[in-house]
Amino acid sequence: MRNLLADARLEDPCPPTLPPFSLTAEVTPVRRRRILFVTSELTDFVKAGGLGDVSAALPRALLAEHDIRVLLPGYRQVLKGAVACRVVGHLPGQAALPPCDIGELQLADGLRVYVVICPELYDREGTPYGDDAGNEWPDNHIRFARLSLAAADMAAGLATPGWCPDLLHVNDWPSALAPAYMAWRGQATPSVLTIHNLGYQGACPLGSCAELGLPEHAGLPESMEFYGKLSFLKAGINHASHITTVSETYAREITGEAFGCGLQGVLAQRRREGRLSGITHGIDASWDARSDPHLVARFDARRLQGKRRNAEYVERSFGLLPGRGPLFAVVSRLVQQKGIDLTLAIADRMVEAGGRLVAIGRGEPPLERAMAQLAERYPGRVGVRIGFDETEARRIYAASDFLLMPSRYEPCGLSQMYAQRLGSLPIARCTGGLADTIVDGVTGLLFREGDPDSYFEAVQRALNIHRYPELLNAMRCKAMEAPQYWSKAVRPYTRLYRDLLAELPVSVRR
Hints:
Blueprint: H1 2-7, E1 34-38, H2 50-62, E2 67-73, H3 76-79, E3 86-91, E4 100-106, E5 112-117, H4 119-122, H5 140-155, E6 167-171, H6 172-175, H7 177-185, E7 191-195, E8 203-205, H8 209-212, E9 225-226, E10 229-231, H9 232-239, E11 242-245, H10 248-253, H11 264-272, E12 276-278, H12 305-317, E13 327-331, H13 340-352, E14 356-361, H14 365-377, E15 382-386, H15 390-399, E16 402-405, H16 415-421, E17 425-429, H17 432-437, E18 445-447, H18 452-466, H19 469-481, H20 486-489, H21 491-502
Parallel strand pairs: 1-2, 1-6, 2-5, 6-7, 7-11, 11-12, 13-14, 13-16, 14-15, 16-17, 17-18
Antiparallel strand pairs: 3-4, 4-5, 8-10, 9-10
């Protein structure tokens, strides 16, 4: 079997890379530090992408060692949820940023969540970032500057009597302005900015400085000016104590022109300074084929009969004919970044070679239509559902033989790890976190170039592997054991927090 696995591997699909330093050393227990985790999404209430999942899982995993609390905008979904929210403080407005209340709610498992209550900004139908038609809110710069300023105020000891964070951990552009507000005020609280996706930078007109309450020098290139606009994300990169990305490979990729989105220069400088590192995500422990209540039948790596029952359910649900070829799956946002157009480009060849395809997701309307048309062209061979449902998604992972992830870039990716845990082998481009979490020919399949031919070569390898059940099952076993849960993935964060807090002058340590 070892030879079969070796034969299935693509020779050196991704040259090995080493980060410039290590965040994996053992952590000595210290006093529970107060961490404010600032996010625009929390799956418990509202989610637009992977940030919501991470924001729900990472703070919970850190609770064992830290007094960590979450700060979230007071969206309608949050304030009308089942958990009662009590007002604990009030913050004044600044420039065009309206005043707000700070609410607090405690979830059943003990996680405390602070809420920025400002109905004129957040009490709306739609997603965290736009309306139900997919249009971004025109005042997003005001909405998320308000979130960032609230975080900076809380770090200054305002609004939450009896609890003041020792460190701020902000996420992506919606909260990236918080370290800048603190720096402009001279606050000493250290901060971590995690970049989940560099492609979204929170740009707004250069003339917005006044309404956001920014100093004049905020509009300079060394602060947050970016090609004639203001970039929230650039402000965070320039002013946070440390920047992390969500995988080691992505931390390296974004310092180059191909993936740097115009910010590669400042990111390369932060890496040279030792202030940029990659910490690969874990996944929630609920992703376990032996116990997942969402599944039609449960199974484990050695006894896979339950996987077949999930496949039968998905075949019925999506109108697929039973087949002897592999079942490929797409569980994804239907957007260009995810390479959905590449899947469409090879779909004819994949079906003609005996594969079947099931897809679930929502995204860009042209890609939604193209996926729906593909299903119409191949009834019984392709099933597509526009939308998303957690239970259906998990059953698709558990049912499928291979998950398709031809992403043009993928900072970390969670879907490949979800699929692995449920016995589906990811077929993915060798980029970002996909390169860090898939061992080619062992726990999935990787391809280098972002073009249809390179992609289809990997699919052809999958078709060949499917003809050898012993090899396929051996790879499934390896894949199901591969992803790490958050309980282990959090250790580098604990060490990073400790190091940043140790750098504070003794006079300002709490």
